[in-house]
Every structure is written in structure tokens, then in C-alpha cells.
Design goal:
binds zinc ion; alpha/beta; binds N-(aminocarbonyl)-beta-alanine
Length: 465
């Protein structure tokens, strides 16, 4: 079965091209400039009209948490609902986090996450591994996981008593990654200091959601980011900072990159579009915006946009971690520290970042680069994913740049009872999403088949080590 996507503007990280794209089975067979299109069209079984639309590589969301256990509850999207929502928003690959529980091995954890995801995903998926129990056995298993296609390992400087790792444990894991080529991903907040501020706030009766933000100041993200960078330098290991939110942290990353260190960072749409004011919404509504690191003041967002332009920030992921307002976020009424941390977003990353193009913050090619191409390279999926070129998987999105939509929980597909972007007017909309040659979404409808997505055995990070 071959399909010709005809008449569109192909947008890649390299630029734009008026070209038609021939899909043969699961792969892209040809990208043909308009003049040569006639002969190619004759070979296609089906033609899809993309006139006046962008033809872009499917988005890669390298940071999601489907069904994640957190604070006594589970993120409300399953692999099935979350990946279907992702497809609606033009994302064709997710990389989710398997979570090591203390006392459980990494291979056993990976098996458990395969049980959750395999056969249930609408789009292709990979895993990172959250390492929360550093010991000799775990370190050895990190090497085995790389052979299983799980080549990146997240560690936490936050959440003492849960995921937290000491500096010594982090250094040991970095040394291990150095020898095997794994990539250490870091949640960089000083959790020990934060826990003191949280205890002091609660003791003083400051229990509303806004205090989640006020007890996690940007300086403590900057400090932890700097410390992670220093540890990575000592271990001679590459480092990827996840969900960077603060200008202080960005400064540390920029300095390391200017020094030639292999340090990379992602930010997330919530840090570009939402702020501490949202956390301060009355009547506990601020709980909808509780995530860590927390939302910041708008000056941080300006710094992040600049970071995206100059490549101090290389990737935008969602950190999709949905908890319903009712019964889940409500666990923290009267005590902000009990609000499950996380914001839903997997469905709207491509749209939200397209607003950055509309507003002149980033170029069209940069949009594709930070949402698809760089994540593919960073996490060992390029050129199978993240670009439009012969031989690549036919993960293709047809995007209508002038269609408009209003984000709302009433119309979104994520399994969560609110939207952090409720009422936001968006210019641009996905017209069609194709996953390995299969149209999975068109005209706003999920076309399936359910369980179409396959596990991606990833290679090592493809940036210089
Ligand atoms: O608040 C957040 N970010 N929740 C998800 C877990 C994490 O730290 O990424
Ligand atoms: Zn984190
Ligand atoms: Zn996360």
C-alpha cells in the first residue's frame, strides 16, 4: 500500500521544501519536489491532499508518565488513553519513564512497564529508567538495560525518601554511564533544602497550592543544576537536565555548554505559557498547576524562549503527568505537599510550540527541531524517527497552520478532568497523523487500530560524547 502526500510544504529541521512525500508500507519512500511529482503520483495507491498545509515529522515527546505511581495514586492516563491523545496532537513517539521501586531490580522494573504498555499504545514508544536505588546490582543492570534499548537513566536530586539520590550515588551512576554510554537525565532541585522550606511553611499554616511554588525557589533549581553539571564533569559523563524551568538553571547549562561540556536540557510548555499566578488561583484551583519544578514568574519564560532560540535548550517535552482535579489533586487540600505533582500536556505540545512560531519566538524549522528531530537524536532514534527522508519511518503529521482551536477539557482526549490551558486560543491544528504509514488520526477522529504502536529499542544518545 503506497500513499502520496501531495501539495504540502515539507518542514524539517533543515528548512522547508514544496514537495510531495511518497509512503510505501511503513516507510517514507521518496520526497519529491513538485516538478517531478507526476511520475511519483502514478505509483501511489492513494493520494492525500496537503495543499496549504505543513508536512512535518511526527512529534517525539521524550518525557511522559503514563500510569505513573506518585504520592499514593497513579497518573490518570493509561498507555492507551495517553498515546491516543498524543496522536491527536501530532505526536507519534513517546518515551515514558519506567520507575524503579526501592528493592526492585532494573530488569524486573522494565518487565513491569512492558506489561503496562505492550499492545496498548496507539503510537510507538520507548522507555527511560528512573533509578531510585543505587547499589552494585543496579549499576550492573544499567549496562544490561542499554542492550534492551533503554539507554537513558533519570535520577532525582529532589524528593528525599522517595526517588532522591545522594551526590555520591549520582556520581557512581554517572561513572557507570560513562563506561557504557548511557545518558544520565537529572531532576535538578535541591530536595533537602526544599523539604525544610516545606516543613516551615506548613508549620506556619501556609498550606495553599501557591506555597508549593514558593517553597521551591529558582535558586534551588539553579544550585542543583550547577551541582549536577559539576558531578558530570568529574565523572566525564554527558548530562541531560529534564524539565528546566528557571533562568538560574539555564545560566548554569549555558555556561557548561560554552565550556564545551556535554550538557543538554529540555524545557516544557507549562514553563513557557503558565506562571506562579496560576498556582495562586483561589479556591484550591492552583492545585491544577502543581508540578516540580514549579511554575515560575514570567521573566523566566522569556529566558527560556531565548534559550530555545540559541540552543542552550535543545528539546521541548511535556513531562505529561496527569492527575484529575477531583479526588487526585484534592488529596492535598489543606496541605500542598500532598498534591500529586504533575500537569497534563501530551496532546498539546505541538500546538503550543506552534504558537511560538506564530509569535515570532522560534522559526518553523526550529519548531520541528526541538519537538522531533533533536529528541530523536538525543535518544538514539534518528534517522528512523524525527525527520522526513527516504528510509525513515512514515511518522508524518499534516498540520493546518491557519485552522483555529480552543483548548478545553471538554474536547481534549487525555483522561483527565481539567486542562491547564483551558480557553487558550490556538492558531494551527493537526489535520492528520500517520504512524508508520498508518493514518491513526484524521479529521479529529482516532482511526486506530488500537495497539498499533510498537516498542522502540533505542540506540545511545547520538550527540558527541
Ligand atoms: O511534577 C512533575 N514533574 N511530575 C512528574 C515527575 C517528575 O519529576 O518528572
Ligand atoms: Zn522530574
Ligand atoms: Zn517527569
Amino acid at each position: 500500500m503506497s500513499i502520496l502526500i501531495k501539495g504540502g510544504t515539507v518542514v524539517t529541521a533543515e528548512g522547508t521544501l514544496d514537495a510531495d512525500v511518497l509512503v510505501d508500507g511503513e516507510k517514507i519512500a521518496a520526497v519529491v519536489t513538485r516538478e517531478a511529482g507526476g511520475t511519483v503520483a502514478e505509483r501511489a495507491d492513494e493520494i492525500i491532499d496537503a495543499t496549504d498545509r505543513y508536512v512535518i515529522p511526527g512529534g517525539i515527546d521524550a518525557h511522559t508518565h503514563m500510569e505513573m505511581p506518585f504520592g499514593g495514586t497513579f497518573a490518570s492516563d493509561t498507555f492507551e488513553t495517553g498515546t491516543e491523545a498524543a496522536a491527536h496532537g501530532g505526536t507519534t513517539t513517546i518515551i515514558d519513564f519506567a520507575v524503579q521501586a526501592k528493592g526492585t531490580g532494573l530488569e524486573a522494573t522494565l518487565d513491569k512497564w512492558h506489561e503496562k504498555a505492550d499492545g496498548n499504545c496507539a503510537i510507538d514508544y520507548g522507555f527511560h529508567m528512573i533509578v531510585s536505588d543505587v547499589n552494585d546490582a543496579t549499576l550492573k543492570e544499567m549496562d544490561a538495560l542499554i542492550g534492551d534499548g533503554v539507554t537513558s537513566f533519570k535520577m532525582f536530586m529532589a524528593y528525599p525518601g522517595v526517588f532522591y539520590a545522594t551526590d555520591g550515588e549520582i556520581l557512581r551512576a554517572m561513572q557507570q554511564a560513562r563506561t557504557s554510554g548511557g545518558l544520565i537525565m537529572m531532576h535538578a532541585e535541591n530536595g533537602i533544602a526544599i523539604d525544610q522550606l516545606v516543613a516551615q511553611a506548613l508549620a506556619a499554616g501556609r498550606s495553599d497550592p501557591v506555597h508549593h511554588g514558593l517553597t521551591r525557589p529558582p535558586e534551588l533549581e539553579g544550585e542543583a543544576t550547577h551541582r549536577a553539571i559539576v558531578l558530570a564533569k568529574v565523572a566525564d559523563c554527558p548530562l541531560y537536565i529534564v524539565h528546566l524551568s528557571a533562568a538560574h538553571a539555564l545560566e548554569a547549562v549555558a555556561e557548561a555548554r560554552d565550556d564545551g561540556q556535554n550538557v543538554f536540557a529540555e524545557t516544557c510548555p507549562q514553563y513557557l505559557y503558565l506562571s506562579l499566578d496560576d498556582l495562586a488561583r483561589p479556591d484550591f484551583e492552583g492545585a491544577k498547576f502543581v508540578c516540580s519544578p514549579p511554575l515560575r514568574t514570567p521573566d523566566h519564560a522569556s529566558a527560556l524562549w531565548r534559550g530555545l532560540r540559541v540552543n542552550d535548550l535543545s528539546v521541548v517535552s511535556t513531562d505529561h503527568c496527569p492527575f484529575c482535579f477531583r479526588e487526585q489533586k484534592e488529596l492535598g487540600r489543606g496541605d500542598f505537599s500532598k498534591i500529586p505533582n504533575g500537569i497534563p500536556g501530551v496532546e498539546h505540545r505541538m500546538d503550543l510550540l506552534h504558537q511560538g512560531v506564530v509569535a515570532g519566538e522560534i522559526t518553523l524549522s526550529r519548531w520541528v527541531e526541538i519537538c522531533a528531530t533533536t529528541p530523536a537524536r538525543m535518544f538514539g532514534l534518528y534517522p528512523r524517527k524525527g525527520t522526513i527522508t527516504p528510509g525513515a519511518d512514515a511518522d508524518i503529521v499534516i498540520y493546518d497552520p491557519v485552522a483555529t482551536q480552543t483548548i478545553s477539557a471538554a474536547t481534549h482526549h487525555m483522561n483527565v478532568d481539567y486542562s491547564a490551558y483551558e480557553g487558550m486560543e490556538i492558531s494551527g491544528k493537526v489535520a492528520l497523523t500517520m504512524s508508520r504509514g498508518q493514518v491513526v488520526v484524521s479529521d479529529g477522529q482516532f482511526r486506530g487500530p488500537a495497539g498499533h504502536g510498537g516498542f522502540l529499542r533505542r540506540d545511545r544518545c547520538q550527540y558527541l560524547f
